[in-house]
Amino acid sequence: MAKRVPFAFAGDMLRWAAWLYHVERRTQNEIAEELEVSRQTVANYLSEAMSQGLVQVQLRPDIIEEQALAVELRRGYNLTAVHIIPTPKTGPQLFDRLGLAGGQVVHDMSRDGDIIGVAFGRTVQRLAALMPVSKQPNTKVLQVAGCSLGGSNTSPEVCASLIASKLSAHCANLFAPAYCSTEGLTTSLLAEPTLIRQFGLFGQANLLVFGIGQMNADTRLYLNEEYFLDNAMRDEYLKLGAVGLIYGRFIDSEGCEIDGPLRNRTMAIELDTARAAPARVAICGGREKTAAVAATLRAGFATHLVTDEKTAKRLLREIS
For residues 60 and 48, is the Cβ–Cβ distance under 8 A? Predict the structure, then answer.
């Protein structure tokens, strides 16, 4: 027989159970012992209390706002999903938070037997490093942009290898420079049977993972260190209207590839091929990336976006 209900709850067992669970934070087992009923009875009490409106659950306003922001971005840029993290106070924290979120997203989206194309960058490297481990021995991870020369841990070859190791998958590295010295050399390399087969695999990728680089005064430091491109090249692309880079290719504010001096010297997935992949995860954040990210999204290069709250709000203002 159930225990007598305290007078304060007017003989209502549902109210007493709801109080113990939601206010005193007691477990269902503890409540069952207190009320001298079964745990299933307690579960029924709590469910009935909810249906009768005795208990009302409300999300914090910031959580609701974040969800609404994701919905607006998804609709505004025609995305499949948007994943928003809180914006931290420092840059290094941003990369780690984006990496944690992006790693979880890619882990959840991938299935054994997938062909996953991986680009490069600091956020992609953090995604790869922080991605949960799983067993996908039949998955193939493709490096879809040529190798860098600086030996950085954010290079395409490192990012692809890291993700492959996290999935216990096969990694197909692209053994060619990101940018060749001449168009003739690029043409010759692309005629090699091995590279023909590898570039053919790019079109079979069902999931792409890429970061987005910005074009501004700081870009020259990154490009010089990794690819030995001089400041004059940077300035020429800025004059041509470049606002960002994806897969090592320069894009304008509408996401169109810039017809600059490196276009026919680039060893990377073609943008039309990238846009045709069924799932395309872009991971990026930060004020300086806003224009580049907006251009990438306008052009339809991403189906999924992982970003931070402040960047998401700025992107929303970019929707025309």
Answer: no
Averaged pLDDT for residues 134-163: 89
Instruction: Give 187's contacts (C-beta < 8 A, 6+ positions apart).
Output: none
Q: What is the pLDDT of residue 224?
A: 55
Residue 251's nearest CA partner among 305, 202, 292 is 292
Cα 129 to Cα 60: distance, rounded to the nearest angstrom: 32
DSSP-derived letter for residue 257 is: B
10-19, 33-42, 146-155, 215-224: least confident range: 215-224
Q: Which helix (H) or strand (E) holds 292?
A: helix 290-298
Q: Can you give the pLDDT at residue 10? A: 47
- CATH number corresponding to 61-318: 3.40.50.1360
Q: 119 and 155 in contact (C-beta within 8 Å)? A: no
Task: Tell me the CA distances in angstroms from 250 to 186, 217, 240, one per residue in order.
Answer: 17, 15, 10
C-alpha–C-alpha distance, residues 277 and 272, integer Å: 9
Write down the residue that tokens 């009768």 correspond to: 52
Contact assessment for residue 211 and residue 123, using Cβ atoms and an 8 Å cutoff:
yes
pLDDT number for residue 196 = 95
The count of C-alpha atoms lying within 13 angstroms of the C-alpha of 238, restricted to the half-sphere facing its C-beta, is 13
- Classify 104 as helix, strand or coil: helix
**Can you give the residue ranges of every domain in the chain?**
7-51, 61-318
Q: How far is CA 283 from CA 119, 195, 213, 228, in A?
A: 11, 27, 10, 25
DSSP of 131-162, one letter per residue? SPP---TT-EEEE-B-B-SS--TTSHHHHHHH
The DSSP H or E segment spanning 116 is strand 115-118
